[in-house]
Amino acid sequence: MRGVLTLLALLAAVAPAAGQPLRIGLKDDPDILDPTLARTFASRTVFIGLCDKLFDVDDKLGLVPQLATGWSWADQRTLRITLRPGVTFHDGRPMDAEAVRHSLHRHLTMQGSFRRGELTNLQAIEVVDPLTILLRLDAPSGAFLSQLSDRAGMILSPAATESMGREFGRAPVCAGPFRFVERIAQDRIVLDRFPQYWDAARIHIPRVTFQAIPDNTARRANLQAGALDVAMQVEPDDVPALRRNARLRIAQAEELGYQVITFNIANGPRSRTPFGQDARIRAAFEAAIDRQAINQVVYGGQYTPTVQPVPPASPYHLRAIGPVPGRDLDRARALLREAGATTPVSLSLTVPNSPDLRQVGEMIQAMVREAGFDLRLNAMEYASGLAASNRGDFEASLTAWSGRPDPDGNIYHGAHSRGATNEGKYADPEVDRLLDEARAETDPPKRLALYDAAWRIAIGRDRSRMYLWHRMNITAYSARVRGLQAHPDGLIRLQDVRLD
Amino acid sequence: MWAWLLRRIGQIIPTLIILSFMIFGLQQLMPGDPALILAGEERGDPLVLQQIREELKLDRPIVEQYLYWVGNVVQGDFGFSWRIRMPVTDLILQKLPVTIQLATMSFIIAIIIGVPLGILSAVKRDTATDWAANGIALFGISTPNFWLGIMMILLFSVELGWLPPSGYVPLWEDPVQSLATTIMPAFVLGTGVASVLMRHTRAAMLTALSQDYIRTARAKGVSEKSVIRRHALRNALIPVVTLGTIEFGRLLAGAVLTEQIFTIPGFGKLVVDAVFNRDYPVVQGVVLATALIFVLLSLIADILYMAINPRLRQA
Amino acid sequence: MSTTVATKAPPLERGQSPARRAVRRFLRHKLAVAGLVVVLSFILIAALAPWIAPYDPIATSWSNIRKPPSALHWFGTDENGRDVLSRLIWGARASLMAGVISVLGAVLIGVPIGLLAGLAGGWVDATISRIADAMLSVPFLILAIALAAFLGPALENAMIAIAITASPVFVRLARGMALDAKSTDWVEASRALGNPPWRIAFVHVLPNIIPPLLVQSTLAIAEAIIAEASLSFLGLGQQPPAPSWGSMLNSAQRFLDGAPWLAIAPGAAIFIVVLAFNLVGDGLRDALDPRADRR
User: Which of A83, A304, A459, B179 fits A470 for a cystine, CB–CB 3.0-4.6 Å?
Assistant: First the structure.
């Protein structure tokens, strides 16, 4: 038996030499590979190789042209985009203004489109000439352009969308550096280099395979054993061990999103507790928690503690509100006394049932107990937790936001009374006004001031939620992989990547 | 015999109908709204939710959803996965070879370990050998699969680097690599089945050894070896044959956590992911398919048992 | 995971003291006795947890996380600096309760329904049997996951889910015994005398069921302990910060190479207890099987 095993292992170790594929291990199985209908991070990881966008985001969160060559505002509501000449889709058809119109129209109107909300300001699309397109908005928008740097800006082959319809995602045809070969659900997705890619000189890998390995240990073990070249979303705990391994490299970048505790302020009967009704008790809760200690213990100090939704890398990071405060038990107790709360204050915290977030919950539980909170943890699987938050069946909930390059995408959804995921139903007319104004504002300093003012009310005064930290996107890869760059959006650009 | 067989086959249809009620009933009871999950971070947009519900017929009464589903299943259409929009039939056909391969390998391992141990422990009853054999067999049934799996990955993949920890390769693409990636999960699954086979082989062997004809043979001075080989063994293999089919059926669907640890893209992982994502067409299709396979295998087991053991035909 | 097919013990010979003979035979079975000793000591440990655990199982100590085994902490400390040995001792409560109570539940659900099916016959029997078949045709863990997700994550709910999922085996067992008993002369006689069916069930069938039921129960307890561990491993069992062996394994997963003791201790505990229950089950099977004396 042992002999057979050794033999098998030897055979497994002899890898083919040249022209090998880049094997990328993902944390989750991507959902549908249709940019109009997709919603997960995992599918974005695949789209980056499959579908080019009008714009891309650079590592400083600035916009850079991709399928576009440039843009200008003809007036406050009219965006003029010039397109890159000589680009073809994987089916050999040309990528032109008509194709852009077609794709944007599909994103905007197709039933079940998840892009509709992102393009909500888009009123009309006009083809000026084959390489120029005008986008007319119904209102000025400082947030619109950055939407075109994600899935809403992906241009799909009109011939394919027409012939495949809703089935497009089963064999997507785009204009990215790699074309779709096959997908075995919950196993792998295979892409091959597209020779006619407009920027083909920067693509050095013949084939990319994406494989979903949800178990963190298994994904890391695959990388260590050489069965993967790149492992995405590595756990921060694993970083020290990976660094010691001379055959592996690590690339990390702070994410665009954040981890947060949302408080139920006005969503149904469970908000009508002293905790839900009195911002001082919530402030006491916050003061009792040591973000940095949790970060150290659970995440090896890899994450960035925060009190706001916009990460430090963004120009819209609110610097004026000062640093992250430390733990202050005396203040927590004083706040509880001031609020006249009867201690222990009973509270339930819903946490996702992943091991790290359960541990975060356990730490918070121990920390706030010292200030006078009796915190019950309620670990829920994703689907149940989502439904419970939506119907207001929670008091406090540990959750996360995946993040957007534009600040509007990180702030509006949670703080505006009509925000998409404002599950605590926080509502303040002044905050609404500030956020609406910021959404339309195109001058960066003015926009920043509006967000600052909104923060001071929604968080500083009302404690509607408690931001915890910006996570780190950690990618571990074999030393054979060269040219790989970490990116705040957590995606790996395949341009310039080589495999020795 | 024929009447029995007909009656036995006739039982399959009500079983499957009840099963389909169970699946639909459970999915009604489960918390979590599929539309919310599908909408993800866009869930705040009522129009998005409404469009999803309309498209997936989630806004219809459950009876209507059920009848619609049954109507399609009868025509061989299991619908499509809500999450990745692939036909459920395609998903099942993609996973079936993987699952069959893993089940077959596990079963072979189980026979190699379980049957000889069972015979040995019966023959050497109440000796240290018997205890040791029992201990080995019970090891398989007493270790949680997921724990054994993790330990094996740690040892063979991370420490020794002999075997790939996962990354299933189809048998027809690269047989050696395929075996290398499935040997650990097959072992983990196989040890559990080995215990069952071992215990039943042992029991059957003990029964056989206490039969009158064996005693007669012994009394006549036939050598112990030949008694065991010629008389006892044949009877002892009956449970292996009959139990084997059922255990094989269990392997086809019961490898949930093992598949997750080794990331084997088989049935178990498919259905567990679908349950957690509330991807109901996949849950319905896979559970129905595995149940059908299981029910058919039980039928085969019963027929085999009848064939081998004619005395039971009257029962 | 697999269910062993229940062995039908023939009715005990009357007029002797079968219980005493069974005890004698069981005690001769050294492995089974060893298993029983282990089971009893774990029950004792679980019962005495508050007094014998060296530390508070949920007392955290951030300066003391993931320390390897030492004189102070025999099995090391976990990711929150809690004593692994203390958590193991307290976790024995959750795991043993999950095993014993959920099987008790399965027996209480399964046996009456099975007796009803066997004694009533006809369409009642057909309906109950088909439902049991349908449940048995779904993989154990998948049914348990669906039920646990429905009930919500909690140890008690995991136990209910396991109890329901494990009950069809007992339905079949009880039904088979009831059918056997129905054909015996004394039950026919009893029926002819006008005894109601429930009386027949309790007076004539139940006593005969007890031996195979005991065997099946010990084996089912072993499976239920693993099932609880599996559900906790998926986050559907014991809620933090209270320990169960399965949830300890669930959190230990993340630290396999840095802190393997976190996975080895609860894994080994599950193994030992499950093995012990299996040994007891085996011993009972042999002891209660009258053929065993004939050799």
Answer: A304
